[in-house]
Amino acid sequence: MSRSRFLHAAAVMAALLLGAGGAQASDKIKVVASFSILGEMVSEVGGDRVEIVSLVGPDGDAHFYEPTPGDVRTLAGAAIFFVNGLGFEGWIGRLEKSSGFKGKVVTATKGIASLESEKEAGGKAKRITDPHAWQSLAHGKIYVQNIRDGLIAVDPDGKATYQANASRFMADIDKVEGEVKTAVATLPPGRRRVITTHDAFGYFGTTYGLEFIAPEGVSTESEPSVQDLAKIIRQIKAQKIPAVFLENISDRRLLDQIAKETGAKVGGALYSDALSKPTGPAGTYLDMFRHNIKTLIAALSS
């Protein structure tokens, strides 16, 4: 073959390869997740086969979120929509309706036994479901299984990839859960009570043996009453609760007031409903657990 023909053939081959690469990129499964923690978990399972958008990003509060016109367009063009469920995203129904979304909706908490509590409201007992199930790593594995199965349903060709990624991710979850249990075991029983700014750690506490007390309810939309606040302050003093913790989505003024009136130590920031930015201390689901347990142990051990 002459040099000119060789170069021409090479150019044609390069163009074909570039075209194939571009097609491959554009053929990624378009995925939407409701908030950053869930979105990162989906990216772990989906890998290079998915193109994912999280509607509520890092440090965002999904309880207060208001969907934008951009969110409507994003969801309308997606093949699959991952939501937490358990009442966490009160705005989901409106968004789905306004977008005309016709793809698959996957509820990541499917199969999880939720925590329930009762709260007095207007003289009546109101039953409340705690939606923060991801705060148990054991439940996190159920999230992964639901994510894997949802992706396989819309992209059967990627089944082997999704299964392999999910298995790897669940093995990593098991490893971090062992680290969390080992760390908690170092704390004396009397040092296992903490105050947080809203009640997002019920599953964490139930699973790992810590008691989290919050002046706000399970949603950041609720505000503690004067009576609730006084009760919390009395409890901190009576039980000698050593530390109070801020959450990355919360206003710290309430926590500062509690710390000032009780002398409890402000132990740092915990990540509850949202990840940090990727460069921060809790840029992934597992990094969130590593950061939180490190922060908790540092404050409660001293």
CATH architecture annotation name of the largest domain = 3-Layer(aba) Sandwich
Query: Quaternary state, please?
Result: single chain
Q: What is the N-to-C order of secondary-structure elements (H for helix, E for strand)?
A: HEHEHEHEEEHHEHEHEHEH
From the spread of the alpha carbons, the general shape counts as globular
Largest sheet: 4 strands, parallel
**What is the topology, as strand order, of the major beta sheet?**
2-1-3-4
Uncertain residue segments: 1-25
- In angstroms, what is the radius of gyration? 23 Å
Report the strand count. 10
> What is the beta-strand fraction?
15-25%
Average pLDDT metric: 85
Which structural category do the helix and sheet elements fall into? alpha/beta
What does this structure look like?
With 302 residues, the protein is α/β, with parallel strands linked by helices. It has two domains: 21-173, Rossmann fold; 176-300, 3-Layer(aba) Sandwich (Rossmann fold), CATH 3.40.50. It has helices at residues 3-26, 36-46, 69-76, 92-99, 137-154, 159-185, 202-208, 226-239, 253-262, 285-300; strands at residues 29-35, 50-56, 80-83, 104-107, 115-121, 124-130, 193-196, 211-213, 243-247, 265-270. The strands form three sheets. Strands 2-1-3-4 form a four-stranded parallel β-sheet, with helices on both faces. The longest helix has 27 residues, at 159-185. It is globular. The model is unreliable at 1-25 (pLDDT under 50).
